[in-house]
Amino acid sequence: MSSVTQLLLLLLCSCHSAIARAGDESLKAEAVCAQPQVTPSSSSGATVRLSHRYGPCSAAPSTDEPTITELLHSDQVRANYVQRKFSAGAGNDGLQPSDLTVPTALGSALKTLQYVITVGIGSPVVTQTMMIDTANDVSWVYCRSPAGTTLFDPSKSTTYAPFSCSAPECTQLGTRGNGCANSECQYNVDYATVANSTGTYGSDTLTLTDSETVTNFQFGCRQDRGVVAGKTDGLMGLGGDAQSLVSQTAATYGQAFSYCLPPTNSSSGFLTLGAPSSMAGFVSTPMLRWGSVPTFYGVLLQDIAVDGKLLNIPPSVFADRSVMSAGTIISRLPPAAYAALSTAFKAGMAQYTAAPPRSILDTCFDFTGLTSITIPSITLVFDGGVAVDLDGNGILIADCLAFAAATTPDGVPSIIGNVQQRTIEVLLDVGQSVVGFRPAAC
To answer: For this UniProt entry, which residues form the secretion signal (predicted)?
Structure first.
């Protein structure tokens, strides 16, 4: 590792972090939305507030919050899905044709999609609270009203138009297409045996803010009854393929966006379409992509540091790259990297009693009777010597280290989950092929 990186680590990671304990059995938020100073980096793009779907900052907080045990189980299913796309030996960069669909049902059936934005669709505008997912391209809203959702009725919108079966937008769906019904394009987004998202594929006006709208926004009008997604109205796809909101708005905002996930369930962050005019405050690393899996955005980890001391993990351990995921909760590291991190973190937590594993988490502690704790800092070091110091709220979950060892074969990328991204503005700029990080942004 270069001397510059060593210096950065000394500057960024020279002390422990003192944090308040989180709840044990769930991720329950406080009853009141705490509004921290939110500072989007871009004043030229379109910025909307981003909130935790179970917290008081959400426009329609869901009430069916899972326990931490349920959440971790669902998150493992989610990680398996993402990593299955890259399974070695299947050809096409590890993809089988039947695997080219995206799990829009994850957030509703498995409750792993945690963050929501509120936008408007149609004319007149119908307010919609939508889950966000960087591992999904096709956006959709309910057009048959499940309990707890706001029905979007396309027949009442003067700007809605379904695509014909011969329209380029319909052909572009590829394996996500579902044939025709009444001469209208149909979509079908599948996830294993969980209820699909199916319906008519069309377009309408998307209202992001009072001054920012997207005309002819393409999305699915979901007609299946499916599994109710709490109080959310649909899903906003932020992946890298042609159907995503990011790709659809490339001419206006460039194929770039950023988001900041809040530190707790009871505070808010933001989602911004468009790159900042200045990279001041950001550090950046090259963005990696997979040709056969254009949905995902990748980075290359080089090492990890605990309290400013590099673990000196061999570069070959990270050769399969990592997916940046806003929808996966727990980061999955190559087993050798996780073992080194766990050992170093335990050494830095020697003053606390070890606790039994919790589901997929095996580096756990007993903080009984404590209202605050002191933990070692963790820094992720990316390609180019870019050191990103994790926020104190991005290290532990349910009294355990919020990392796990990947259980996939060689050739499969690891995952940088959303816990580690808390309070950091993450910039995904396809046009410039960079991933940026700006600390303490929300």
So the answer is: 1-22
